[in-house]
Every structure is written in structure tokens, then in C-alpha cells.
Amino acid sequence: MSQLTTPAAATPAAAVAAAPAKAAKRPGRSRRSPAKSLLLHGTLIVASLIALGPIVWVLLSSFKPGYAVQSSDLTLVKDPTLANYSYVLFDTNFPKWLLNSVIVAAFTMLIGIFFSATTGYAVSRFNFPGRRPLMMTFLITQMFPAAILIVPIYTIMARFGLINTLPALIIAYLTIAVPFCAWMLKGYFDSIPTSLDEAAALDGCGPFAIFWRVVLPLARPAIAVTAFYTFLTAWGEVMYASAFIQTDNKFTLAYGLQQFVPQFNPQWEYLTAAAVLVTVPAGVVFMIAQRHLVSGLTAGGTKG
Amino acid sequence: MTTVTADPAPPSPPSGRSARPSRLRRSWEKHWYAWAMVLPVVIVLAVLIFYPLFRGIWLSLTNLTEANQAAEICTRSITGGEVCAENPNRWEFVGLDNYLNVLSGNVGDFWQWTGITLIWTLGCVVFHYGLGLGLAVMLNRPMWGRGLYRVLLVLPWAVPAFVSAFAWKFIFNERFGLANSLLSSLGIDPVDWFANQWTSLFTAIITNIWLGVPFMMVALLGGMQTIPGELYEAAEIDGASAWQRFRNITLPGLRPVSMTVILLGTIWTFNMFPIIFLVTEGQPAGGTEILVTGAFRAAFEGIRNYSLASTYGVLILSILLVFSMFYRRALRKQGEVW
After folding, report:
1. Predicted TM-score of the model (pTM)
2. Mean pLDDT computed over every residue of chain A
3. Which residue among A98, A226, B269, B311 is least crowded, i.e. fewest CB within 10 A of its CB?
4. Which residue on chain B is closest to A183 by alpha carbon?
5. Half-sphere exposure (CA, 13 Å, Cβ side) for B26?
6. Cβ separation B38–A211 shorter than 8 A
7. Structural domains of chain B ordered from first start
């Protein structure tokens, strides 16, 4: 088996490495004039600033005391304090919400990866009856507005006794994330040569072993994207959480955060601190996955 | 068995489901593991998407609300069990009344919301794609700091939608928001963003553009890296300008990716709930409601009107289905099918 995976493992690495190499062959660097270079970097720097701006602004504001947050004077740092953080962390149920969110997101991620990978693999490799309709179904599920689904799903959850439990959320988030991820993974699996499967089959691997030992390790970039996507879906969702969760100790962060936004007097300073605390875990997952984002989405996007 | 396993499944039409038992059995023997792999997803989708869908269609033909439901949804209690008393005679089948009410404007502002939704969707998707493509083209060149730019530009994707909604709402706050501070430091009068329909919609669109560009950029960047570099070399030898190379190599090479991401982007934006709901909250006076948020408010504020929610849901789904049908047909005419 190891002989099989070694040359195989080289393939995605080659694919990843080939991409920049290909780009490098393109005309550009040698002929780019200083003015063009300046324009290019200038545009990208501005774009990066816009991308970062809101995040940084919220981060800076989270260290300001309440009166400075709600002041119209433009200051970057003013009387820096950790009071907002200590309030959010210690005077609310924040730790509990964080834990709930971690549980929900982690399970959504793990189960989501597993289901999308098996489904994507089956759709990519086997020409079974029902394959086409399944692919179309995945697309159609993306069109369902939550407004139409939320009440019947609520009924079903109630029937299974899942209201106000975390599994209800995990299941609901899986229905959002899995169709897209399966679609994306199918595209990536398509780009892995079937000759590898055939070789493994000659070595006596069954279909499940081929999937597990040959194809899955090769699809690591796409799996990383799937992990990122499923995690984020579960981490940031508000609507289902507000429908299915009723007691404070079961809130996810996304929903619990809304407590800081009462209708008339939003507590902006706490909100900023909470926003930072919510974003940090998502950012960590992003940093782990980001190396793979481009190559992982590549084939997924192309093959649809 | 093993010879079958590596069946590569090129795109060939699915063999029609035959009624013959022997065929069925052979089909089962050949495909059972494929079905086994797909089964969990199919079950979950069937239970949680398709059952609710058909139920939703049925509900849209009734007048079910929270007040007259009785036997339907009875578990607001903590036990979560079935505390339902058998009392089903309250709500009834009303035919197309809901649709007539919604479409004639008796309930809610369907046409206004649809108009806003179209502006919102078009505005967002055009900028998502345009900016995403532009940035992807720039990032696809060899240059100093490319990896860093890429990480920074993709970062908004990692921010959960509701956090970005809060962040931008904070920035556009009329009293102490960054946007107004910057404007007044430039000597421009501060704007009360959420008091006017168009500035309010503008803030929401800006938020969503900020949030959605990274996905487009990454997908298109991925697509560009699958375009063979030889094409560019050949074009250059033939003396093609940068613009010509972009028009005649990059864009056609990106077509498959573009088709998919534009379709998905349109669907996602059309149904994008949290941004409008949290950033503009429909202000001023419902002037920036899109269909999903408008439907949500119409159906769920006050007494929850389940049949009305379902009606809107069916209408939204129909619009998107029709759109994607035309979209696919238009693409097929140009010779490309996916």
C-alpha cells in the first residue's frame, strides 16, 4: 500500500507546485515597468487595507472604554482597557456559549467532511443510477430559503425531541453545508486520475479501502476547504439557532452575541470585544486552511 | 468485484431505472457501495429538506398560524415532548388565498421587496465577480508579497457573517461610526445612513461585497491556475496584447468556474438573510427589506404565520428555479453544459 501512496502523494504536491510555476512562466515580471509595478502593488495594498480595515477597527475599538467607543472623535487608541473583554468573558455566559459553538462547529465539521467526502467520491467515481438527479438536487437545495424550511424542520426536530439541544443545530447546519461541499469535493476527486484507483483495485483494495487510503489522502487541499467551509457555516449561523435554541445555557456564540444588541441601546463596547473573541477561532481555522484554499477550490470550481 | 470498483464514471446518461427484478438485482450488486456512500446524505436531505419542502408547499395552501395550529407545533414547553392535544379543526385548506394576498399586496410588499432584492442581488454579484476577477488577475502574477496579499484579501471570508454585519453597522453608525468620522474629517457632512432607503441599502451592499469577494477571488484564482501556460506563451509569440490575452485566453478558460460561481453567488445573495436583517434591519420603514427578510418579518413578527412564511418560501424558490433554468438554457445555447 505504501508503494502506492508514495507516488500518489507526489501528485497533489506537483499540482500545487505546478500552478505557481505555470504562472511564473507567464510574461510579466521581466517586462513590467516600475509604473505598472507601482500600480499593481498600490491597488493590492488598498484592497488589502479595505479587507482588513473593518476587522482592525473593531479590534481597536474593543480596547476602548465605552465613552470612547461612542464618541465621534476619530482616534485609533484611547485609554486602552481590557474592561470590555473582562465583562464579556466573566459577566456573561460567554464561556458556555463558546463551548457550545465549539461543540456544534466541530461536529458539523467532522460529520460534514465525512458525508461530503463519501458522497462526492461516489458521485465522482461510480456511474450509478440516480447520480445525475443527486447532483441536481444538491444545486436545488442551495435555493431553499430558510424561511420555508424553518417551521417544518422545527416540527421534525420537536418530534425527535431535539428542540433546545445542540444536535438539532448540528443536523440543520449539515443540511446547509454538505450539498455544496459534496459538489466541490466531487470536482476535486474528478481531477485525481482514476488510474490510481485501478492500480489499488488490482492490489486487491475494495471500493471503501480505495476511497480511504488512496483518494482521500490525495484530496487533502479540498478536504481543508471543506473543513473551513463547514466550520464557518456552523460558527456564524444565527437563524436556526434563534429558532431551535431557547435557554441561555444552550446558546451558540452567534446567537448569544445578540444579547448585546437590544433594540434601543446597543452596548457597542461589549459587542466589539465579543466580535473579536468570536472571530479569533474562525481566524485560527482559516490560518490552518488558507494554504489550501486556492488549490482546493480549483477543481471544485471547474468541474461543477 | 474489483474490476467494477475502478469504474471511472465518465459523464454518461444514467441508465433508466428498470422494473425488471433481475436488472434491479444486477444494478444493486454493481452499485450497492455507491449507494451506501450516498445514502446518509440522501436520507438527511430527504428528511430535512424535501419533507419540509413538500410540507411547506402544502402549508402555503392553508391558513395555519401560531394561533390556530393546536395539534401542529405544540412544544414551546421545556420538556420538548409531545404535549399536543388533538385539536386539528382550527386551521383549514384555503387554496390559493395566500398567494393572492401576497401577490396583490394585501399582505406585505411583495413587489417592492422583489425590486429591492433584484437591485441587491445584481449589485452584489456584479461587484463580487468584477472585483474578484480583478484581484484574481492581479494575484495570478508572480510578484513580491503575493502570498501575503492573498491571505489578507481572503481574510474577510473567515469572519462570520454576523460579525461582519455588526462591524459594518458599527462603522456606519450615524453618531460615532468610522464612515462619518472619515467624512467629516474630509469636511463632508455626516450622513444618517439608515434614514434613507438608498444609503441604507448601500451600506448593506457594501457589507456583502466585502464579505463575498474573497470566495469569488479564490475560486477564480483557482480556475486561472488550471489554464495551461502554453496558451499565454503562444499568444505572446503571436503578438497578443495583455488585454487580448485576457479576453481570449483568461476569460474563456474561466468559463466553467465563472458559470458555477455566478449561479451559486446569485442564489446565495438572493437568499442572504443575516446582512440585511442585522445591518439595515429593513430601515427606513421596511425600505430595504429583501424578500427573505421581508417574508421573515411578515410571517414571524407578532403571531407567527406559518402558512404565510411557506407561501413566501415557495415564491422565492420558484423565482430561483426559473432563473437557474433560463441561466442554464442561455449557457447551453453557447455550447457549454455542465
Report:
1. 0.78
2. 76
3. A98
4. B260
5. 7
6. no
7. 98-333 (1.10.3720.10)
